[in-house]
Every structure is written in C-alpha cells, then in structure tokens.
C-alpha cells in the first residue's frame, strides 16, 4: 500500500532565493508535437529560464548564482516527478549535482547546500530502480575527479551523508533536517535487502522523527511521518501510528493525506468501517 509522507517542508534559505529573470527562449524541437509535454514545459518556464553564471562573477555573487541554478534544476525535477516524467527528473537532479559540487568547494560550511544535496537525493526515492541510475560528480561521493553512475541505494546513502553534514553544522537543532534525515533512513530501509539492517534503519528513523517532534510539536507533517514510519510492515507499531495520525489531524484537520493514511491503517487492521470514514 502506497503511503505518502509530505517531506517538502523547506528551511528558510535566503541564500537560495535567487530568481532567474531571463525568459524561456523556446521549446526543444523534438517536443513541440506533444501537447501534454508542451503544456508541462510552459508550466516550468520560470525555473527553466536561461541560467548562465557570468564569467566575471566571483565570490558571494558566484555562489548565489550557482546555487540558484542548482535549486532551479531541483525544482524542475519535482515538477517532472509530479508529471510522471521520471527520466527528466533524473536528468535535472544530475545537473543540480554538478552545480552543487562546485558550490560545496566554495562554501563547505553552508547548511543549505548540504540540505539541497540531501533533498535532491531524496526526491528520487519513488522512481523505479531501472530509471534511477544517475550521474553524480565523484567529489560528492568522496572520490577523485570525474563522475560516477550510481543507483537508488547509493543515492540515498549520499542523502544520508548530506543531511548529517547539515545537522552537524547546526548542532542537530533543526526539526526539518531531522525530519528529512528520518525519511531518508525510512526509504533506505525500503531498498535494503537485509531485513535486520532495514529494521535498524527504521528504528533510527523513528528516533529522529520523535526528536523533530520534540523540537517542533506543532509540526503536523512530523506527526504524519511518525505514523507512516510506525506502521511499516517491519515495525507494525499500529497504536503509535494511530496516535500520530490523530495528533497530526488535531493540528491540521483538513489534511487529506493524513486522513488517507489513517484510513489505510484501519484497513490494514481489518476495520473496514473506520477505513471508509478515514477516506470519505
């Protein structure tokens, strides 16, 4: 059963608020005949604006431009995923990685850079393994220059490393980073073949999301994530899952995702009547 966790809560990142101003010059020739594709491309015109880092830019200006372009690629990958254009999403994330590897060299102490790398890795968790092979600069993987093709598991491991770097730089006090790191562990458990290792990842995930709730008890997405993690088929802590979903709904009662997750929980436990109420 496909359960959703809304993990797109973003940190306040003024350094990443560069907005490209140059217009989209045109559509690719091989895509002009596909009306659905054309509509999607028009929708992405703003982030697809020409993003050129001027040769004369340097210092702070250069980092803002590079990171602005990387975030534009990341946002385009999210739009592609929402439109079931998985291969495009992978291509955009790969382009984001190229810029992020340059940015990390310039500002390795920027929390937002490590978070954006983690977010880019995590964004592809739902893509099939056959599509999720992605080119990553070797330097992001701790190796020499060049690039490497990695799969989903290695991608999530890179996300793990990146979120940990972000948390280290902010002394572990960000509920949003704890949230995303918890989700990274959750999805890593999903692709892990060893059940014991998967259980270990899920237990770490559970602990991290509880820490996020301690720091931000009114964050309804944290409670929803706790519920989804708790009801995983390995953990099966259904009482905690129910408590978590209900706690989330007390904060945000009109959240359709949480109602659906609560309905799925009741359905798993053969309570069809309550499952129906959760999904109407």
TrEMBL record:
Tell me the GO BP annotations in alphabetical order: RNA catabolic process
Identify the Gene3D superfamilies for this entry.
Tetratricopeptide repeat domain
- Alphabetical UniProt keywords: Repeat, TPR repeat
Alphabetized SUPFAM superfamilies for the sequence: TPR-like
A GO CC term attached to the entry: Ski complex
Specify the protein name: Tetratricopeptide repeat protein 5 OB fold domain-containing protein
């Amino acid at each position: 059963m496909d359960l959703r966790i809304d993990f797109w809560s973003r940190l306040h990142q003024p350094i990443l608020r560069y907005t490209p101003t140059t217009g989209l010059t045109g559509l690719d020739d091989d895509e002009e005949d596909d009306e659905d594709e054309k509509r999607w491309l028009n929708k992405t015109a703003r982030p697809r604006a020409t993003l050129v880092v001027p040769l004369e830019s340097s210092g702070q200006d250069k980092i803002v431009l590079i990171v602005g372009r990387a975030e534009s690629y990341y946002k385009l990958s999210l739009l592609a995923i929402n439109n079931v254009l998985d291969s495009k999403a992978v291509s955009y994330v790969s382009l984001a990685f190229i810029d992020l590897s340059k940015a990390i060299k310039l500002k390795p102490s920027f929390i937002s850079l490590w978070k954006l790398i983690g977010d880019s890795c995590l964004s592809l968790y739902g893509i099939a393994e056959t599509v999720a092979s992605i080119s990553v600069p070797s330097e992001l993987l701790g190796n020499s220059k060049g690039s490497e093709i990695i799969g989903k598991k290695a991608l999530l491991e890179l996300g793990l490393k990146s979120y940990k770097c972000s948390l280290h730089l902010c002394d572990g006090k960000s509920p949003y980073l704890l949230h995303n790191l918890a989700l990274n562990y959750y999805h890593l458990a999903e692709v892990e073949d060893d059940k014991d290792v998967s259980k270990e990842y899920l237990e770490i995930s559970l602990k991290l999301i509880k820490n996020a709730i301690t720091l931000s008890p009114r964050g309804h997405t944290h409670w929803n994530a706790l519920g989804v993690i708790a009801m995983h088929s390995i953990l099966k802590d259904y009482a905690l899952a129910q408590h978590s979903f209900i706690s989330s709904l007390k904060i945000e009662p009109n959240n359709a995702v949480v109602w659906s997750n609560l309905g799925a929980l009741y359905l798993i436990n053969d309570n069809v009547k309550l499952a129906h109420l959760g999904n109407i």
